TrEMBL record, chains A, B:
Belongs to the GST superfamily. Theta family. It holds the Pfam family GST_C_2. Keywords: Detoxification, Transferase. This is glutathione transferase. The keyword S-adenosyl-L-methionine does not apply. One of its GO terms (molecular function) is glutathione transferase activity. Residues 89-225 form the GST C-terminal domain. It comes from Ambrosia artemisiifolia. GO terms for biological process: toxin catabolic process. InterPro entries: Glutathione-S-Trfase_C-like, Glutathione-S-Trfase_C_sf, Glutathione_S-Trfase, Glutathione_S-Trfase_N, GST_C_Theta, GST_N_Theta, GSTT1/2/3, Thioredoxin-like_sf.
Length: 242, 242
C-alpha cells in the first residue's frame, strides 16, 4: 500500500506537500478533498484527519496531518530525498524548525486573514469582514518585512541556505495565495520586498516544472476572481452615475 | 560558554523550556526578559531574538527562538535527555510534530485570545476587546474537546504515549495560563474535560517539583488579578445600589 496524499490544490499547505513529493520523485496517489464542496467534513475524511483540514497523508497503516509534520516525515521516510530539504546538521535543522514555527503565527495568519476576508470569503457567500482583512494585511506586511530583513538576509533561501529546504516550499506556497488578490493589491503588497520577490522566483525555479503545474488551479481561480471584480467595479461605476 | 535561556515566567512557552531544562538536569543560566517592562523590545534582546518574543536561547555561538524548535534542539544537543521526550522512532516523532504544529493555530490562539483580551490586557491598561475574548474562548473550547477526544484518547499523555514528551510540557504550560481567569471561569471551561484535567495532573507529577516552582509567578499573578476583580465587583455592586 503506497503513499496517499489528501489535498485540495487551492490550499497552500496542500500544494507544498504535492510539490515536495513531485520534485523528489516520491511515488504517491493524489486524492482530492474538495473543500469548496465541504468534502473535508465528510465522515470518510474525518477518519483520516479528524481536524477536517488538508493536507493529510496515509502511508501504509500510518496517518498524519499538519503540513510541516508531513514534510518532515517524508524527508525521513523516503531515502531518496536530498539532505538540503531537511538537513541532518543540528544547527541548520533547528533553524528550519524555528522558521516553520514562526510561519504558523505570522506569515500564515497574515495571508489567510487577508485573502480569506477580502477575497475567498466574500466571493463564496460569507459576510465580508473588513476589520479582519485589515488586521491580516498588517500582520502580513510585518511578516514580509521579517522575511526580507531577517530570514532571507544571509542567503538565497531561508535561514542562510544555498539550496531550498522544506521551509522554502512551505512559505513560498503561502505567499502564492496572494495571487488571488487584485493585480494592484498584489503589486502594492509584494513589490517593496525585493529579496522576497527574488526568493519566490528562485524557489519556483528550483522546483520547476512542478511548481507551476501544481499552482495552475490558483491562476484559474485568480482569473475568475479578477473577472468578477472587474464586472463588479463596472457595475458600481454605472450605479454611481445613475 | 554554557546555555543561556531568555525567559519571562509569565509566558507559557518560557515556562515550558525552563521546566524541560530543570527536569532533564540541563545546566543553564536563566535570564529574565521582563515583558511587562517591554524588555523584549530592547536593542540588546533584539540582537538575540529580532522577533522580540520569549523564550530564546543562546548556546555558545548558536542562537535560537520559537519554543518548540528550542525544545527539539535541547533534546538533540544534550545527550542526557531520555528518549520519551522526543522519540527517535519516526512514527512517534512525526505525531509529536503534528500535535506541536496543531498547537500553534488552535490551543495557543484560543488561550492567548481569551486570557489576553479578558484579563491581561484590561488589567494592564489595554482597551478590553470582548469580541476577541469571545472568539478566543470558542477556539479554546474546540481545542480542549480535540485534546479530550483525539489527542488524549490512546494514553495518559499526548499521541498515545505512556511517558511525557516535549508536547505535553508545551501544551500543559499553555493551558496553565487559564489560571489567570476567575475561579468560576476556570472551572466552567476546564471541568467538562476530565481527561484533560487528569493529563494536566499527570504532567505536573512527571515534572515535579519543577512544574510548581516555575509556575509560582503565575499563581502570584492570579492572586493579584482575582483580588482586583473582587474589589471591582464590590465597587460595581455598590454603584448599582446608589
Amino acid at each position: 500500500m503506497g503513499l496517499k496524499v489528501y489535498v485540495d490544490r487551492l490550499s497552500q499547505p496542500s500544494r507544498a506537500v504535492l510539490i515536495f513529493c513531485k520534485i523528489n520523485g516520491i511515488d504517491f496517489e493524489e486524492i482530492r478533498v474538495d473543500i469548496m464542496k465541504n468534502k473535508h467534513f465528510s465522515p470518510e475524511y474525518k477518519a483520516i484527519n479528524p481536524m477536517s483540514q488538508v493536507p493529510a497523508i496515509v502511508d501504509g497503516r500510518f496517518k498524519l496531518f499538519e503540513s510541516h509534520a508531513i514534510l518532515i516525515y517524508l524527508c525521513s521516510a523516503f531515502p531518496g530525498v536530498a539532505s538540503h530539504w531537511y538537513p541532518g546538521d543540528l544547527f541548520k535543522r533547528s533553524k528550519i524548525h524555528s522558521v516553520l514555527d514562526w510561519h504558523h503565527s505570522n506569515l500564515r495568519r497574515g495571508t489567510v486573514g487577508l485573502v480569506f476576508n477580502s477575497i475567498i470569503g466574500p466571493q463564496n457567500g460569507f459576510p465580508s469582514n473588513a476589520q479582519a482583512a485589515k488586521e491580516g494585511e498588517k500582520l502580513l506586511m510585518k511578516s514580509l518585512a521579517k522575511l526580507e530583513n531577517f530570514w532571507l538576509k544571509d542567503g538565497r533561501f531561508l535561514v542562510g541556505s544555498l539550496q531550498p529546504s522544506i521551509a522554502d516550499i512551505s512559505l513560498v506556497c503561502e505567499i502564492m495565495q496572494l495571487e488571488l488578490l487584485s493585480e494592484k493589491d498584489h503589486e502594492r503588497i509584494l513589490s517593496p520586498y525585493k529579496k522576497v520577490v527574488q526568493w519566490i522566483e528562485d524557489t519556483k525555479k528550483a522546483t520547476a516544472p512542478h511548481f507551476d503545474e501544481v499552482h495552475d488551479i490558483l491562476f484559474r481561480a485568480q482569473k475568475r476572481f479578477r473577472e468578477r471584480m472587474a464586472t463588479e467595479s463596472v457595475k458600481n461605476e454605472l450605479k454611481s452615475k445613475l
